[in-house]
Known about the structure:
Layout: E1 2-3, E2 9-10, H1 31-52, E3 58-62, H2 64-74, E4 83-87, H3 94-103, E5 106-107, E6 113-114, H4 128-140, E7 156-161, H5 169-181, E8 186-191, H6 200-213
Parallel strand pairs: 3-4, 4-7, 7-8
Antiparallel strand pairs: 1-2, 5-6
Helix pairs in contact: 1-2, 3-4, 3-5
Amino acid sequence: RxxxxxxxxxxxxxxxxxxxxxxxxxxxxxIEGLRETSTYIHTLLRCAIEDxxxxxxxxxxLSQGCAAxxxxxxxxNGEPIAAAFAMCGWLxxxxxxxxxxxxxxxxxxxxAENDLFESDGEAGVQDLPTQGTTFLFEELxxxxxxxxxxxxxxxxxLGHGVEDEKVAVGLGQEAVSCxxxxxxxxxxxxxxxxxxxxxxxxxxxLVDTLRRWTxxxxx
Length: 219
């Protein structure tokens, strides 16, 4: 994909984004790639579920793959999968989703708040986590009209190095906060002395966590 920040040079990336120093700037660059990537991952999930069953499927990624897998999980409308993991990454559109899930409205910075989901009656009004996730569906222009929220039944492991020089550990913590606002079950671990990669300790924690969450990871 072409990267705007590198003068539209073609590089290997799941989606385009601007700067992880200011991840909430120029978020429009992410939309096309995240939509295409999520659709592709959803196809892989459907094939895997058909082959081995949803209870045996785990989704995960590292760095930008972490971001892509989390977005794919949030926009997955199929059967809940066994688990998900995310390493050394962040959550695109985190600020907007968390703001909506926390209050039901989005502040555009001009002192006015826009209720994106106001209704004339009580019938059909979405709860706050669903409102936050619906924002993501609409922002990515996905074909589904509304989220199934199946990710709320999929536990998520997030691991991040404290010394990460590419994706600050604070971005991982912000992702955890947003996912919890959306109703996800999250286990968060950070690792002292670790940069932008996984470690033996992180992998051991992931395996131990999968043992608790599934019946097929054996000692």
